[in-house]
Task: structure prediction
Amino acid sequence: MQQTNVKPIDCLHFIDGKFVPSFDGKTFDNINPATEEKLGTVAEGGAAEIDLAVQAAKRALNGPWKKMSANERIAVLRKVGDLILARKDELAALESLDTGKPIWLSGSIDIPRSAYNFHFFSDYIRTITNEATQMDDVALNYAIRRPVGVIGLINPWNLPLLLLTWKLAPALAAGNTVVMKPAELTPMTATALAEICRDAGMPDGVVNLVHGFGPNSAGAALTEHPDVNAISFTGETTTGKIIMTTAAKTLKRLSYELGGKNPNIIFADSNLDEVIETTMKSSFINQGEVCLCGSRIYVERSAYEAFLEKFVAKTKELVVGDPFEPKTKVGALISDEHYERVTGYIKLAIEEGGTILHGGKRPEGLDKGYYLEPTIITGLDRNCRVVQEEIFGPVVTVIPFDTEEDVLDQVNDTHYGLSASVWTNDLRRAHRVAGQIEAGIVWVNTWFLRDLRTPFGGMKQSGIGREGGMHSFEFYSELTNICIKL
Ligand code: NAD
Result:
Protein backbone atom coordinates (compact mmCIF):
# COMPACT_ATOMS: atom_id res chain seq x y z
CA MET A 1 0.00 0.00 0.00
CA GLN A 2 0.86 3.68 -0.46
CA GLN A 3 3.60 3.79 -3.05
CA THR A 4 4.97 7.29 -2.84
CA ASN A 5 8.40 8.65 -2.10
CA VAL A 6 6.93 11.99 -1.11
CA LYS A 7 7.22 12.57 2.62
CA PRO A 8 4.20 14.01 4.43
CA ILE A 9 4.90 17.35 6.09
CA ASP A 10 4.29 18.62 9.60
CA CYS A 11 2.20 21.75 9.17
CA LEU A 12 3.03 25.06 10.84
CA HIS A 13 1.24 28.39 10.54
CA PHE A 14 2.66 30.91 8.06
CA ILE A 15 2.44 34.41 9.50
CA ASP A 16 4.18 37.55 8.24
CA GLY A 17 6.50 35.55 6.00
CA LYS A 18 7.58 32.98 8.60
CA PHE A 19 6.56 29.44 9.49
CA VAL A 20 5.68 29.40 13.18
CA PRO A 21 4.17 26.99 15.72
CA SER A 22 1.20 27.92 17.90
CA PHE A 23 2.01 30.18 20.88
CA ASP A 24 1.13 27.42 23.30
CA GLY A 25 2.71 24.70 21.14
CA LYS A 26 -0.65 23.01 20.61
CA THR A 27 -0.92 20.54 17.71
CA PHE A 28 -3.31 17.92 16.39
CA ASP A 29 -2.69 14.77 14.36
CA ASN A 30 -3.14 14.58 10.60
CA ILE A 31 -4.56 11.17 9.64
CA ASN A 32 -4.20 9.40 6.30
CA PRO A 33 -7.75 8.31 5.36
CA ALA A 34 -6.46 5.47 3.18
CA THR A 35 -4.45 3.80 5.97
CA GLU A 36 -5.81 5.38 9.18
CA GLU A 37 -2.15 6.06 10.09
CA LYS A 38 -0.75 9.35 11.33
CA LEU A 39 0.81 11.47 8.58
CA GLY A 40 2.18 14.13 10.90
CA THR A 41 1.18 16.96 13.17
CA VAL A 42 -0.57 20.24 12.51
CA ALA A 43 -0.21 23.43 14.56
CA GLU A 44 -3.54 24.27 16.18
CA GLY A 45 -4.22 27.98 16.00
CA GLY A 46 -6.81 30.11 17.74
CA ALA A 47 -7.62 33.76 18.36
CA ALA A 48 -4.01 34.77 19.16
CA GLU A 49 -2.52 33.36 15.95
CA ILE A 50 -5.39 34.77 13.89
CA ASP A 51 -4.85 38.20 15.39
CA LEU A 52 -1.13 38.12 14.58
CA ALA A 53 -1.92 37.03 11.01
CA VAL A 54 -4.59 39.70 10.53
CA GLN A 55 -2.26 42.45 11.79
CA ALA A 56 0.46 41.26 9.38
CA ALA A 57 -2.06 41.25 6.51
CA LYS A 58 -3.18 44.76 7.45
CA ARG A 59 0.38 46.09 7.40
CA ALA A 60 1.10 44.44 4.04
CA LEU A 61 -2.13 45.77 2.52
CA ASN A 62 -1.08 49.41 2.65
CA GLY A 63 2.62 48.61 2.64
CA PRO A 64 4.63 46.50 0.20
CA TRP A 65 1.70 44.95 -1.71
CA LYS A 66 0.16 48.34 -2.47
CA LYS A 67 3.49 49.86 -3.38
CA MET A 68 4.21 47.24 -6.06
CA SER A 69 3.07 48.16 -9.55
CA ALA A 70 0.29 46.08 -11.13
CA ASN A 71 2.88 44.51 -13.43
CA GLU A 72 5.08 43.52 -10.50
CA ARG A 73 2.14 41.96 -8.66
CA ILE A 74 1.07 40.07 -11.78
CA ALA A 75 4.60 38.72 -12.22
CA VAL A 76 4.58 37.34 -8.67
CA LEU A 77 1.17 35.73 -9.20
CA ARG A 78 2.28 34.11 -12.44
CA LYS A 79 5.36 32.80 -10.65
CA VAL A 80 3.14 31.15 -8.03
CA GLY A 81 1.36 29.30 -10.86
CA ASP A 82 4.72 28.31 -12.39
CA LEU A 83 6.05 27.01 -9.07
CA ILE A 84 2.90 24.95 -8.47
CA LEU A 85 3.49 23.28 -11.84
CA ALA A 86 7.18 22.79 -11.04
CA ARG A 87 6.19 20.96 -7.84
CA LYS A 88 3.19 19.18 -9.41
CA ASP A 89 4.11 15.57 -8.57
CA GLU A 90 4.98 16.36 -4.97
CA LEU A 91 1.80 18.42 -4.47
CA ALA A 92 -0.34 15.71 -6.08
CA ALA A 93 1.10 13.12 -3.68
CA LEU A 94 0.51 15.38 -0.66
CA GLU A 95 -3.06 15.98 -1.79
CA SER A 96 -3.74 12.26 -2.22
CA LEU A 97 -2.15 11.42 1.15
CA ASP A 98 -4.33 14.03 2.86
CA THR A 99 -7.64 13.36 1.08
CA GLY A 100 -7.52 9.69 0.00
CA LYS A 101 -8.26 10.68 -3.60
CA PRO A 102 -6.58 8.76 -6.47
CA ILE A 103 -3.19 10.15 -7.46
CA TRP A 104 -4.18 10.30 -11.17
CA LEU A 105 -6.98 12.68 -10.14
CA SER A 106 -4.86 15.04 -8.05
CA GLY A 107 -2.15 14.91 -10.75
CA SER A 108 -4.52 15.59 -13.65
CA ILE A 109 -7.08 17.96 -12.12
CA ASP A 110 -6.41 19.35 -8.64
CA ILE A 111 -2.84 20.51 -9.08
CA PRO A 112 -2.84 21.69 -12.73
CA ARG A 113 -6.10 23.58 -12.10
CA SER A 114 -4.55 25.20 -9.03
CA ALA A 115 -1.70 26.54 -11.16
CA TYR A 116 -4.15 27.63 -13.83
CA ASN A 117 -6.16 29.59 -11.26
CA PHE A 118 -3.08 31.79 -10.74
CA HIS A 119 -2.30 32.07 -14.46
CA PHE A 120 -5.94 32.77 -15.34
CA PHE A 121 -6.61 35.50 -12.75
CA SER A 122 -3.27 37.22 -13.28
CA ASP A 123 -4.13 37.44 -17.00
CA TYR A 124 -7.75 38.43 -16.35
CA ILE A 125 -6.90 41.38 -14.12
CA ARG A 126 -5.21 43.07 -17.10
CA THR A 127 -8.49 43.10 -19.02
CA ILE A 128 -10.40 45.06 -16.39
CA THR A 129 -11.05 48.69 -17.20
CA ASN A 130 -12.94 51.34 -15.27
CA GLU A 131 -16.52 52.30 -16.09
CA ALA A 132 -17.31 55.92 -16.97
CA THR A 133 -20.76 57.51 -17.19
CA GLN A 134 -21.40 60.91 -18.70
CA MET A 135 -24.47 62.96 -17.61
CA ASP A 136 -25.10 65.13 -20.68
CA ASP A 137 -22.76 68.10 -20.38
CA VAL A 138 -23.35 68.34 -16.62
CA ALA A 139 -21.01 65.82 -15.11
CA LEU A 140 -18.70 62.92 -15.72
CA ASN A 141 -18.68 59.91 -13.41
CA TYR A 142 -16.01 57.30 -13.26
CA ALA A 143 -15.66 54.39 -10.88
CA ILE A 144 -12.32 53.29 -9.52
CA ARG A 145 -11.61 49.89 -8.02
CA ARG A 146 -9.66 49.28 -4.87
CA PRO A 147 -9.08 46.22 -2.70
CA VAL A 148 -11.64 45.31 -0.06
CA GLY A 149 -8.86 44.87 2.53
CA VAL A 150 -7.95 41.82 4.58
CA ILE A 151 -9.85 38.76 3.36
CA GLY A 152 -10.41 35.56 5.33
CA LEU A 153 -10.43 32.45 3.15
CA ILE A 154 -12.10 29.43 4.78
CA ASN A 155 -11.94 26.19 2.83
CA PRO A 156 -13.20 22.60 2.81
CA TRP A 157 -11.28 19.33 2.45
CA ASN A 158 -12.60 17.90 -0.80
CA LEU A 159 -10.55 19.90 -3.34
CA PRO A 160 -8.10 21.54 -0.94
CA LEU A 161 -5.57 23.30 -3.19
CA LEU A 162 -7.91 23.81 -6.14
CA LEU A 163 -10.52 25.66 -4.09
CA LEU A 164 -7.98 27.59 -2.04
CA THR A 165 -6.25 28.94 -5.17
CA TRP A 166 -9.65 29.67 -6.75
CA LYS A 167 -10.11 32.26 -3.99
CA LEU A 168 -6.52 33.25 -3.30
CA ALA A 169 -5.54 34.16 -6.88
CA PRO A 170 -8.35 36.70 -7.54
CA ALA A 171 -8.16 38.08 -3.99
CA LEU A 172 -4.47 38.87 -4.45
CA ALA A 173 -4.84 40.03 -8.05
CA ALA A 174 -7.37 42.60 -6.83
CA GLY A 175 -4.77 43.90 -4.35
CA ASN A 176 -6.09 42.38 -1.12
CA THR A 177 -4.09 40.54 1.51
CA VAL A 178 -5.33 37.34 3.07
CA VAL A 179 -5.49 34.99 6.02
CA MET A 180 -6.20 31.42 4.91
CA LYS A 181 -7.83 28.81 7.15
CA PRO A 182 -7.71 25.47 5.34
CA ALA A 183 -9.77 22.47 6.43
CA GLU A 184 -8.29 20.75 9.46
CA LEU A 185 -8.45 17.40 7.63
CA THR A 186 -6.30 18.52 4.67
CA PRO A 187 -3.59 20.97 5.78
CA MET A 188 -0.59 19.89 3.69
CA THR A 189 -0.98 21.52 0.27
CA ALA A 190 -2.03 24.82 1.87
CA THR A 191 1.24 24.73 3.83
CA ALA A 192 3.19 24.01 0.65
CA LEU A 193 1.33 26.85 -1.08
CA ALA A 194 2.46 29.31 1.60
CA GLU A 195 6.05 28.26 0.90
CA ILE A 196 5.47 28.68 -2.85
CA CYS A 197 4.08 32.20 -2.32
CA ARG A 198 7.19 33.10 -0.31
CA ASP A 199 9.49 31.59 -2.96
CA ALA A 200 7.63 33.47 -5.71
CA GLY A 201 8.56 36.77 -4.05
CA MET A 202 5.32 37.61 -2.29
CA PRO A 203 6.13 40.27 0.35
CA ASP A 204 5.77 39.25 4.01
CA GLY A 205 2.23 39.47 5.35
CA VAL A 206 0.43 39.36 2.00
CA VAL A 207 -0.44 35.68 2.41
CA ASN A 208 -0.90 34.25 5.89
CA LEU A 209 -2.02 30.80 6.93
CA VAL A 210 -3.45 29.68 10.27
CA HIS A 211 -4.36 26.04 10.85
CA GLY A 212 -7.05 24.90 13.21
CA PHE A 213 -10.67 23.87 13.54
CA GLY A 214 -13.92 25.79 13.06
CA PRO A 215 -15.94 26.47 16.22
CA ASN A 216 -13.96 27.93 19.18
CA SER A 217 -10.84 27.76 17.05
CA ALA A 218 -9.08 29.48 14.14
CA GLY A 219 -12.16 29.48 11.87
CA ALA A 220 -14.43 31.21 14.35
CA ALA A 221 -11.66 33.66 15.36
CA LEU A 222 -11.20 34.68 11.72
CA THR A 223 -14.91 35.35 11.22
CA GLU A 224 -15.06 37.33 14.49
CA HIS A 225 -12.00 39.50 13.89
CA PRO A 226 -12.97 43.18 13.49
CA ASP A 227 -10.11 43.90 11.06
CA VAL A 228 -11.12 41.22 8.60
CA ASN A 229 -13.17 42.95 5.91
CA ALA A 230 -14.58 39.97 4.04
CA ILE A 231 -14.90 36.22 4.30
CA SER A 232 -14.90 33.94 1.31
CA PHE A 233 -16.23 30.61 2.51
CA THR A 234 -16.69 27.24 0.83
CA GLY A 235 -18.19 24.48 2.92
CA GLU A 236 -21.38 23.13 4.37
CA THR A 237 -24.61 25.10 4.32
CA THR A 238 -24.98 24.68 8.10
CA THR A 239 -21.50 26.15 8.67
CA GLY A 240 -22.38 29.04 6.37
CA LYS A 241 -25.35 29.89 8.57
CA ILE A 242 -23.16 29.98 11.68
CA ILE A 243 -20.52 32.14 9.98
CA MET A 244 -23.18 34.56 8.78
CA THR A 245 -24.38 35.09 12.35
CA THR A 246 -20.86 35.67 13.63
CA ALA A 247 -19.79 37.88 10.74
CA ALA A 248 -22.92 40.03 11.12
CA LYS A 249 -21.46 41.56 14.29
CA THR A 250 -18.74 43.26 12.25
CA LEU A 251 -20.80 43.40 9.03
CA LYS A 252 -18.34 41.54 6.85
CA ARG A 253 -18.81 41.07 3.13
CA LEU A 254 -19.51 37.38 2.49
CA SER A 255 -19.09 35.08 -0.49
CA TYR A 256 -20.60 31.63 -0.06
CA GLU A 257 -20.11 28.41 -2.01
CA LEU A 258 -22.15 25.84 -0.08
CA GLY A 259 -23.61 22.35 -0.39
CA GLY A 260 -25.64 20.82 -3.17
CA LYS A 261 -27.97 17.95 -4.02
CA ASN A 262 -27.55 18.14 -7.74
CA PRO A 263 -29.84 16.43 -10.26
CA ASN A 264 -28.92 14.67 -13.50
CA ILE A 265 -31.97 14.66 -15.79
CA ILE A 266 -31.76 12.01 -18.48
CA PHE A 267 -34.29 11.99 -21.31
CA ALA A 268 -34.85 8.84 -23.36
CA ASP A 269 -33.68 10.51 -26.58
CA SER A 270 -30.13 11.08 -25.27
CA ASN A 271 -27.15 8.97 -26.26
CA LEU A 272 -27.06 6.35 -23.52
CA ASP A 273 -23.36 5.50 -23.89
CA GLU A 274 -22.39 9.15 -23.51
CA VAL A 275 -24.78 9.48 -20.59
CA ILE A 276 -23.32 6.48 -18.80
CA GLU A 277 -19.72 7.57 -19.32
CA THR A 278 -20.35 10.99 -17.80
CA THR A 279 -22.73 9.76 -15.11
CA MET A 280 -19.99 7.46 -13.80
CA LYS A 281 -17.87 10.56 -13.24
CA SER A 282 -20.60 12.82 -11.94
CA SER A 283 -21.57 10.14 -9.43
CA PHE A 284 -18.29 8.71 -8.19
CA ILE A 285 -15.31 10.89 -9.08
CA ASN A 286 -13.37 11.95 -5.98
CA GLN A 287 -15.50 9.38 -4.04
CA GLY A 288 -18.56 11.52 -4.79
CA GLU A 289 -17.01 14.23 -2.62
CA VAL A 290 -17.41 17.07 -5.11
CA CYS A 291 -20.01 19.77 -4.46
CA LEU A 292 -21.05 19.47 -8.14
CA CYS A 293 -21.56 15.70 -8.12
CA GLY A 294 -24.95 14.62 -9.43
CA SER A 295 -26.42 12.62 -6.58
CA ARG A 296 -30.08 12.57 -7.72
CA ILE A 297 -30.42 10.84 -11.07
CA TYR A 298 -33.79 11.19 -12.84
CA VAL A 299 -34.32 8.97 -15.89
CA GLU A 300 -37.28 9.12 -18.28
CA ARG A 301 -39.31 5.96 -17.63
CA SER A 302 -38.90 4.45 -21.11
CA ALA A 303 -35.09 4.50 -20.67
CA TYR A 304 -35.03 3.67 -16.94
CA GLU A 305 -34.36 -0.11 -17.13
CA ALA A 306 -31.76 0.19 -19.89
CA PHE A 307 -29.98 2.96 -17.98
CA LEU A 308 -29.90 1.01 -14.73
CA GLU A 309 -28.59 -2.13 -16.37
CA LYS A 310 -25.64 -0.34 -17.95
CA PHE A 311 -25.01 1.95 -14.99
CA VAL A 312 -24.83 -0.93 -12.51
CA ALA A 313 -22.63 -2.98 -14.85
CA LYS A 314 -20.15 -0.11 -15.25
CA THR A 315 -20.18 0.70 -11.56
CA LYS A 316 -19.24 -2.91 -10.77
CA GLU A 317 -16.07 -2.39 -12.83
CA LEU A 318 -14.84 0.53 -10.72
CA VAL A 319 -11.78 -0.38 -8.68
CA VAL A 320 -11.92 0.91 -5.12
CA GLY A 321 -8.64 1.03 -3.24
CA ASP A 322 -5.22 2.51 -2.61
CA PRO A 323 -5.09 6.07 -4.03
CA PHE A 324 -1.53 5.42 -5.24
CA GLU A 325 -2.45 2.38 -7.38
CA PRO A 326 -2.87 3.53 -11.01
CA LYS A 327 -5.91 1.29 -11.56
CA THR A 328 -7.83 2.77 -8.61
CA LYS A 329 -10.88 4.77 -9.64
CA VAL A 330 -12.39 5.39 -6.19
CA GLY A 331 -10.15 6.11 -3.19
CA ALA A 332 -10.95 6.48 0.50
CA LEU A 333 -13.51 8.78 2.11
CA ILE A 334 -12.01 11.66 4.05
CA SER A 335 -12.43 10.56 7.67
CA ASP A 336 -13.89 8.14 10.15
CA GLU A 337 -16.62 10.63 11.03
CA HIS A 338 -17.55 11.20 7.38
CA TYR A 339 -17.54 7.44 6.73
CA GLU A 340 -20.06 7.01 9.55
CA ARG A 341 -22.19 9.80 8.13
CA VAL A 342 -22.25 8.40 4.58
CA THR A 343 -22.89 4.80 5.68
CA GLY A 344 -25.58 6.17 8.04
CA TYR A 345 -27.41 7.47 4.96
CA ILE A 346 -27.17 4.02 3.33
CA LYS A 347 -28.81 2.48 6.42
CA LEU A 348 -31.43 5.21 6.33
CA ALA A 349 -32.14 4.46 2.65
CA ILE A 350 -33.08 0.91 3.60
CA GLU A 351 -35.28 2.17 6.46
CA GLU A 352 -36.96 4.56 4.04
CA GLY A 353 -37.86 1.63 1.75
CA GLY A 354 -35.03 1.90 -0.78
CA THR A 355 -33.24 -0.91 -2.60
CA ILE A 356 -29.44 -1.01 -2.76
CA LEU A 357 -28.83 -2.08 -6.35
CA HIS A 358 -25.08 -2.02 -5.92
CA GLY A 359 -22.55 -1.25 -3.20
CA GLY A 360 -23.49 -0.06 0.25
CA LYS A 361 -20.62 -1.69 2.11
CA ARG A 362 -16.87 -1.81 2.63
CA PRO A 363 -15.13 -3.56 -0.29
CA GLU A 364 -13.77 -7.01 0.53
CA GLY A 365 -10.08 -7.16 1.41
CA LEU A 366 -9.84 -3.50 2.47
CA ASP A 367 -9.95 -3.67 6.25
CA LYS A 368 -8.11 -0.43 6.96
CA GLY A 369 -8.98 2.96 5.47
CA TYR A 370 -12.35 4.60 4.94
CA TYR A 371 -13.29 2.69 1.80
CA LEU A 372 -16.83 2.33 0.57
CA GLU A 373 -18.22 0.68 -2.55
CA PRO A 374 -19.91 3.08 -4.98
CA THR A 375 -23.58 2.79 -4.12
CA ILE A 376 -26.71 2.95 -6.29
CA ILE A 377 -30.10 3.22 -4.59
CA THR A 378 -33.57 2.95 -6.18
CA GLY A 379 -37.12 2.85 -4.87
CA LEU A 380 -37.06 6.10 -2.88
CA ASP A 381 -39.48 8.94 -3.38
CA ARG A 382 -38.94 12.68 -3.39
CA ASN A 383 -39.68 13.22 0.31
CA CYS A 384 -37.10 10.74 1.63
CA ARG A 385 -34.23 12.29 3.57
CA VAL A 386 -31.76 10.36 1.40
CA VAL A 387 -33.18 12.17 -1.66
CA GLN A 388 -33.36 15.56 0.06
CA GLU A 389 -30.13 15.81 2.09
CA GLU A 390 -26.54 16.18 0.87
CA ILE A 391 -24.61 12.94 1.50
CA PHE A 392 -21.29 13.98 -0.09
CA GLY A 393 -20.10 10.45 -0.80
CA PRO A 394 -20.22 7.80 -3.56
CA VAL A 395 -23.97 7.34 -3.17
CA VAL A 396 -26.66 8.15 -5.75
CA THR A 397 -30.40 7.64 -5.99
CA VAL A 398 -32.06 6.84 -9.33
CA ILE A 399 -35.71 7.79 -9.86
CA PRO A 400 -37.89 7.38 -12.99
CA PHE A 401 -40.00 10.27 -14.35
CA ASP A 402 -42.79 10.61 -16.90
CA THR A 403 -42.97 14.21 -18.11
CA GLU A 404 -40.92 17.39 -18.22
CA GLU A 405 -43.27 19.05 -15.72
CA ASP A 406 -42.99 16.08 -13.37
CA VAL A 407 -39.19 16.03 -13.41
CA LEU A 408 -38.83 19.81 -13.04
CA ASP A 409 -41.17 19.72 -10.09
CA GLN A 410 -39.07 17.04 -8.38
CA VAL A 411 -35.73 18.60 -9.30
CA ASN A 412 -36.64 22.00 -7.87
CA ASP A 413 -38.16 20.54 -4.72
CA THR A 414 -35.05 21.09 -2.58
CA HIS A 415 -33.41 23.82 -0.52
CA TYR A 416 -30.29 23.45 -2.65
CA GLY A 417 -29.60 25.02 -6.04
CA LEU A 418 -25.97 24.52 -7.02
CA SER A 419 -25.79 22.64 -10.34
CA ALA A 420 -27.63 20.26 -12.66
CA SER A 421 -27.04 18.35 -15.85
CA VAL A 422 -29.63 17.73 -18.57
CA TRP A 423 -29.28 14.99 -21.17
CA THR A 424 -31.32 15.22 -24.39
CA ASN A 425 -30.83 15.53 -28.13
CA ASP A 426 -33.92 17.72 -28.48
CA LEU A 427 -32.55 21.26 -28.83
CA ARG A 428 -35.70 23.06 -27.79
CA ARG A 429 -36.24 20.87 -24.79
CA ALA A 430 -32.63 21.36 -23.70
CA HIS A 431 -33.08 25.14 -23.57
CA ARG A 432 -36.57 24.95 -22.10
CA VAL A 433 -35.63 22.60 -19.27
CA ALA A 434 -32.23 24.17 -18.51
CA GLY A 435 -33.81 27.58 -18.06
CA GLN A 436 -36.33 26.31 -15.52
CA ILE A 437 -33.95 24.51 -13.19
CA GLU A 438 -33.29 26.45 -10.00
CA ALA A 439 -29.51 26.09 -10.01
CA GLY A 440 -26.53 28.39 -10.52
CA ILE A 441 -24.93 26.12 -13.12
CA VAL A 442 -26.71 23.88 -15.65
CA TRP A 443 -24.81 21.63 -18.05
CA VAL A 444 -26.44 20.20 -21.17
CA ASN A 445 -25.04 16.88 -22.44
CA THR A 446 -21.94 17.30 -20.31
CA TRP A 447 -20.80 17.79 -16.72
CA PHE A 448 -18.00 19.69 -14.92
CA LEU A 449 -16.95 21.53 -18.08
CA ARG A 450 -15.67 24.84 -16.76
CA ASP A 451 -14.64 28.08 -18.43
CA LEU A 452 -13.21 30.16 -15.59
CA ARG A 453 -14.72 33.35 -17.02
CA THR A 454 -18.26 32.11 -16.40
CA PRO A 455 -20.30 32.66 -13.22
CA PHE A 456 -19.88 29.87 -10.68
CA GLY A 457 -22.05 29.52 -7.59
CA GLY A 458 -25.33 28.38 -6.19
CA MET A 459 -28.81 29.73 -5.55
CA LYS A 460 -31.14 29.03 -2.61
CA GLN A 461 -29.13 27.44 0.23
CA SER A 462 -26.24 26.49 -2.07
CA GLY A 463 -24.58 29.86 -1.94
CA ILE A 464 -24.53 33.62 -2.08
CA GLY A 465 -22.80 35.46 -4.90
CA ARG A 466 -20.83 34.14 -7.82
CA GLU A 467 -17.15 33.50 -8.45
CA GLY A 468 -15.31 33.27 -11.78
CA GLY A 469 -13.95 35.92 -14.15
CA MET A 470 -15.37 39.35 -13.42
CA HIS A 471 -17.67 37.91 -10.75
CA SER A 472 -14.66 37.13 -8.56
CA PHE A 473 -13.35 40.65 -8.98
CA GLU A 474 -16.74 42.12 -8.08
CA PHE A 475 -16.43 40.41 -4.71
CA TYR A 476 -12.75 41.09 -4.12
CA SER A 477 -12.86 44.81 -4.98
CA GLU A 478 -14.60 47.94 -3.74
CA LEU A 479 -15.87 50.62 -6.10
CA THR A 480 -15.70 54.36 -5.55
CA ASN A 481 -17.73 56.45 -7.97
CA ILE A 482 -16.17 59.86 -8.59
CA CYS A 483 -18.55 62.47 -9.97
CA ILE A 484 -17.02 65.57 -11.56
CA LYS A 485 -19.20 68.55 -12.40
CA LEU A 486 -18.26 69.82 -15.83
P1 NAD B 1 -17.39 22.45 6.66
O1 NAD B 1 -18.42 23.49 6.56
O2 NAD B 1 -17.50 21.44 7.74
O3 NAD B 1 -15.94 23.09 6.84
C1 NAD B 1 -15.42 24.02 5.90
C2 NAD B 1 -14.43 24.91 6.59
O4 NAD B 1 -15.11 25.71 7.55
C3 NAD B 1 -13.34 24.18 7.36
O5 NAD B 1 -12.12 24.86 7.16
C4 NAD B 1 -13.80 24.28 8.79
O6 NAD B 1 -12.76 24.23 9.74
C5 NAD B 1 -14.46 25.66 8.80
N1 NAD B 1 -15.45 25.87 9.85
C6 NAD B 1 -16.27 24.96 10.40
N2 NAD B 1 -17.04 25.55 11.35
C7 NAD B 1 -16.71 26.87 11.39
C8 NAD B 1 -17.14 27.99 12.15
N3 NAD B 1 -18.09 27.88 13.06
N4 NAD B 1 -16.57 29.18 11.91
C9 NAD B 1 -15.62 29.30 10.96
N5 NAD B 1 -15.15 28.27 10.22
C10 NAD B 1 -15.69 27.06 10.42
O7 NAD B 1 -17.36 21.75 5.23
P2 NAD B 1 -16.49 20.49 4.80
O8 NAD B 1 -17.07 19.29 5.45
O9 NAD B 1 -15.05 20.80 4.97
O10 NAD B 1 -16.77 20.47 3.23
C11 NAD B 1 -17.83 19.80 2.62
C12 NAD B 1 -18.94 20.77 2.25
O11 NAD B 1 -18.44 21.79 1.38
C13 NAD B 1 -20.07 20.12 1.48
O12 NAD B 1 -21.29 20.62 1.96
C14 NAD B 1 -19.85 20.59 0.05
O13 NAD B 1 -20.99 20.60 -0.77
C15 NAD B 1 -19.32 21.96 0.28
N6 NAD B 1 -18.58 22.43 -0.90
C16 NAD B 1 -19.16 23.39 -1.69
C17 NAD B 1 -18.49 23.82 -2.85
C18 NAD B 1 -19.10 24.86 -3.75
O14 NAD B 1 -18.38 25.38 -4.59
N7 NAD B 1 -20.38 25.18 -3.62
C19 NAD B 1 -17.24 23.30 -3.16
C20 NAD B 1 -16.70 22.32 -2.32
C21 NAD B 1 -17.37 21.90 -1.19
Remarks:
- Residues 154-158, 163, 181, 183-184, 213-215, 219-220, 223, 234-236, 239, 242-243, 257-260, 291, 390, 392, 418, 458, 463 surround nicotinamide-adenine-dinucleotide (CB under 6 Å).
- The chain has two domains: 13-258+462-485, 263-451.
